[in-house]
Design goal:
This protein has 3 domains: about 1-45; about 60-75 and about 85-185, no CATH class; about 205-355, no CATH class. It is built from 16 helices and 7 strands. It is globular and about 85 Å long. The strands form 2 sheets. Strands 5-4-3-7-6 form a 5-stranded mixed β-sheet, with helices on both faces. Strands 1-2 form a two-stranded antiparallel sheet. The longest helix is centred in the N-terminal third of the chain and has 35 residues, at about 1-35. A hairpin with a 6-residue loop joins strand 6 (about 135) and strand 7 (about 140-145). About 30% of the residues are buried. With about 400 residues, the chain is α+β, with helices and mostly antiparallel strands.
C-alpha cells in the first residue's frame, strides 16, 4: 500500500511540480529574457534613424496609449491619401489588456477614453492572444483588439516593423481594417478559392521569388534610370520562369500578392507618415523608403511564401510610385482586375533580360529555409506558460 501511495505521490505531485517548475524557469530565465533584452543599435542615415536605439521604449500600456493615439491621428487620415478609395475617417477601436482588467476606446478623432473591461467582455467574445482582433458589425468601422504590456516590450516584435519601431496595434488596425472595410467592399478579388500554403520545400521557387525581391530592392534604391530598368528586366526574366514552372502556386501567389501586398503597402506608408513627424509627403516618403531598404536587412522576412506576400512585395508599389505619372492609375487597375497583381502590372512594362542568381545567394536561401523548417521548442513552452501562468 505504501509503495502504491508513493508512486501516486510521484506521478500526481512530484512530476507535475517538476514539469511546471521547468516550464516556469525556462520561460522566465531564457525565453522571456531573450525576447525582452533591449537592443541599442542605432542606424543613422542623414536625417533618418533606424533601430531601437533611436527611441525610448515605453514601460507599460498607460505610457504607450498616448503614442498609439498620436500614431492613429496621423495614420488613419493618411490612408485616403495612399489609397484614394479608402476612408478611415470614422474608424473606432476598442482595446482590452490580456489580463482582462483594463479597457480603452480610441475614437476616430483619436482621443483616448477609458472603457469598462466588463462591458468589453459582455460585448465581444473572449480572446486570449496578443493583437487578436475582430470587427463589430453593428458599429460601422469599429474593431476590437487585445493588447499586452508583456508583448509591448518584446524586442522581436518591435524589430519586425522597422517603418514603425514601436508596439504595433496601430498597424493591426490599418492593415486588418483595410482588408475588412475596404477590400471586402470594393476589390474585385476574383476568387476566394485559394488557400494560404507554405511551400518551403520548393527551394527553387523560393529562391526565384526572393531574388526578384532583391532586384526590386536594387531598383527602388538606385537613382540611375538605366540600372533601374536593368534590374526590372532581370526580375521579369525570373518571374516568367517562376510562372512557367509553378502554375498552381502562381495562382495562389497572384491572389495574395494583391490582397496582402496592398494592405501592407498602406500600413507601411501610413506608419512612415507618422515617423515623418505627421507629414504625408510623397517625395519625403520615397527618401525614407530608400534609406530604410538600404540600411535594414529585410532578408529574413522573405524566404517563405506567406512573407513574400507582405511587406517585401510592397516594393513593386513603391517602384510604381516612383515611375508612374499618376500613382492612382495603377492602384485602380489592381483594385478592379483580379488577373493582375502589383508585380504583374510593374513587370508588364519590361522585356525579360536573362541573368543568373549568384551561388552565394542560393546558399543563403537554403540556410534560411533549413532554419525556418526546423523544430523549435520555444513556442511550445510559451504556449504552456501562457495557459498555466
Amino acid at each position: 500500500m505504501k509503495k502504491f501511495l508513493k508512486w501516486l505521490f510521484i506521478i500526481f505531485i512530484i512530476i507535475p511540480v517538476v514539469f511546471l517548475a521547468g516550464i516556469w524557469l525556462s520561460y522566465t530565465f531564457y525565453i522571456d529574457w531573450e525576447m525582452h533584452k533591449q537592443s541599442h543599435n542605432k542606424i543613422v542615415d542623414n536625417e533618418y534613424c533606424w533601430g531601437m536605439g533611436c527611441r525610448t521604449q515605453e514601460k507599460n500600456l498607460e505610457e504607450f496609449f498616448p503614442i498609439l493615439s498620436g500614431q492613429m491621428k496621423v495614420m488613419a487620415p493618411a490612408v485616403k491619401k495612399i489609397w484614394p478609395w479608402a476612408d478611415f475617417s470614422k474608424i473606432k477601436a476598442y482595446f482590452i489588456n490580456k489580463q482582462k482588467t483594463k479597457s480603452w476606446i480610441v475614437w476616430w478623432d483619436w482621443k483616448i477614453e477609458d472603457y469598462s473591461a466588463s462591458k468589453f467582455l459582455e460585448k465581444y467574445p473572449v480572446m486570449w492572444y496578443d493583437l487578436e482582433f475582430g470587427f463589430d458589425e453593428k458599429e460601422p468601422q469599429s474593431m476590437y483588439l487585445v493588447v499586452s504590456d508583456d508583448e509591448m516590450r518584446k524586442q522581436e516584435g518591435l524589430e519586425s516593423y522597422p517603418y514603425l519601431w514601436t508596439y504595433d496595434p496601430a498597424l493591426t488596425v490599418i492593415h486588418e481594417g483595410f482588408h475588412y472595410f475596404i477590400q471586402d467592399a470594393s476589390f474585385n478579388k476574383g476568387t476566394d478559392e485559394v488557400s494560404r500554403i507554405e511551400v518551403l520545400t520548393n527551394q527553387r521557387a523560393r529562391t526565384q521569388r526572393t531574388w526578384i525581391i532583391e532586384l526590386f530592392k536594387k531598383a527602388l534604391i538606385t537613382q540611375d534610370k538605366e540600372k533601374k530598368e536593368q534590374f526590372l528586366k532581370q526580375a521579369k526574366y525570373f518571374f516568367e520562369i517562376y510562372k512557367k514552372e509553378n502554375p498552381k502556386e502562381f495562382i495562389i501567389t497572384r491572389y495574395f500578392d494583391t490582397i496582402e501586398w496592398t494592405a501592407a503597402y498602406v500600413e507601411t506608408l501610413s506608419a512612415l507618415s507618422w515617423k515623418n513627424k505627421g507629414n504625408f509627403d510623397r517625395e519625403q516618403l520615397n527618401k525614407m523608403l530608400i534609406s530604410m531598404y538600404s540600411k535594414v536587412d529585410y532578408f529574413n522576412f522573405a524566404v517563405w511564401a506567406v512573407n513574400e506576400w507582405y511587406t517585401i512585395w510592397s516594393l513593386a508599389g513603391y517602384i510604381l510610385d516612383q515611375l508612374e505619372e499618376n500613382p492612382d492609375d495603377w492602384k485602380k487597375e489592381i483594385q478592379n482586375n483580379p488577373k493582375t497583381s502589383p508585380v504583374i502590372y510593374l513587370l508588364s512594362k519590361y522585356e525579360a533580360e536573362k541573368s543568373e542568381i549568384p551561388e552565394t545567394f542560393k546558399e543563403k536561401v537554403k540556410r534560411e529555409i533549413k532554419k525556418k523548417s526546423g523544430y523549435s521548442w520555444k513556442p511550445v513552452i510559451k504556449f504552456i506558460y501562457d495557459i498555466i501562468f
